[in-house]
Amino acid sequence: MKPLIPAVLRDEPQFARLFVGQSLSVLGDRVSFVALPFAVLSIGGSASDVGLVAAAGLLPMLLFTLVGGVLADRFRRHRIMLVSDLVRFAAQGILSVLLLTGACEVPYLVVLMVLFGTADAFFMPASTGLIPLVVPPERLREANALRGFVQSSGLVVGPALAGGLVAVAGPGGALALDAVTFAVSAAFLSRLTVRDTTPEPAQVVTGGAFLGELRAGWAQVRSRTWVWAGMAAIAVYHVVMLPSVFVLGPVLAEHAWGGAASWSVVVAAFGIGSIVGDVCAYRIKIARPMAVAAAALAVASCQALIIGSGAPLVLIAALEAVTGVAVSLCFVLWETALQTHVPEGALSRVSSYDHLLTEGLMPLGLALAGPVSAFLGVRPTLYAMTLVAVPAALALLCVPSLRRLPAHASSATGGAAGPPVVAEPSRP
Fold first, then answer.
1. Which residues form a coiled coil (predicted)?
2. Taking the chain, what is the end-to-end CA distance rounded to the nearest angstrom?
3. Between 257 and which of 116, 262, 352, 401 could a Cys-Cys bridge form, CB atoms 3.0 to 4.6 Å apart?
């Protein structure tokens, strides 16, 4: 009988420690995502206040992600993540106390969400760059697939848990649980032992000015066609396609499918498909991962067409499950490719550009989806989204360096080469 615990968790104790802490934190985030709007409404806030609070959490992504990438390439990444967890623990803890005591007001929520979002902006580039320091190169795909599995499972478990907590303990109680998960994650990070790295002499360039390091990070992106092309296509997916899920899908469900219950079926089906995709990414070895990722992104970009198709709900849910498989495969393979082929000393900076162009710009698409659909109609807007997003994904398959990118850096071609990395000789 095969062991139930995945091999990468059995064989890599530092990754196992990181994985457990981050898994609890992800679950808390899923709970918070559901509970936060109800927190605004519970204190008498309006729909506009809900949007304001959500924007307050997202805006720091635009302002601080690149800063976080530079710092994560200069200092120990797990320490940046530890500080970020402690800040988020404090923000969510204060927010939960204010809600439970009846002292919360919308301006307090806005300020605390700005603080939370700022910590988030520093956490994400450090997190991506940390994985290669606790997992050997040949296990990166497995590690990222397990992380993706937790994210996908949270889509299914988190909302159900959040609904129960909000009903029993109110939004303040639900957010208190999220605060606790950050404290637990910080405890695991404080015990983490990370492989120390010193950049090779050829990779070190004198001069540590912030803008110089930022430019060096962008040079790493620009010098790899497969990286900047992949970022562009994934940005289109986030800015053009995801509003069909977050904005127009619920609107269509409310007017044509019978309301939230029907939409929850579609969301749950997507979550189940995502879990299947993560399992596939864990178990299947792929010789040309980015070619598969590009094809998967094209399938994922059909979500708007599926949602607006007018097909029976059961068929829409089944097709959304297929796109869930594709989404998980795409992003596990993309993150693994970055960790494999981008020099470790620049990985967090490259990752910060990735996050800026995707999560950072996504609010623009969310803001435009409503007005555009009011002008064109919901279904025509969904079809237009498909006409933009699917060709952008398919265009990736026209990039030779992306199609041919190998799974392992040892056999990389010239497409994996890049300019010298601005880095410190050692991390404090």
1. none
2. 45
3. 262
286 and 145 in a common domain:
no
Q: Is 0.85 surpassed by the pTM of this model?
A: no
Give the dihedral of Cα atoms 86, 91, 97, 101; nearest 10 deg. Answer: 170
Task: Return the structure tokens found at 8.
Answer: 């990468």
How many whole angstroms separate alpha carbon 157 and alpha carbon 152? 9
pLDDT in tens, 50-60: 767 877 887 88
C-alpha 334/C-alpha 8 separation (Å) is: 19
Give the per-residue SS3 of 335-349.
HHHHHHHCCHHHHHH
Residue 122 phi, psi dihedral angles, 5° rounding: -80, -30
- Choosing from 169, 196, 223, the residue where a domain stops is 196
pLDDT tens digit sequence for 378-415: 899 999 999 999 999 999 999 999 999 998 875 444 44
How far apart CA 176 and CA 35 sit, in angstroms, is 10
Structure tokens at 376: 């064109």
| Domain count along the chain | 2
Tokens of 406: 């190998």
**Look-up: residue for tokens 């986030």?**
238
Task: Count CB neighbours of 387 within 10 A.
Answer: 12
User: Which domain covers residue 4, as residue numbers?
Assistant: 1-196
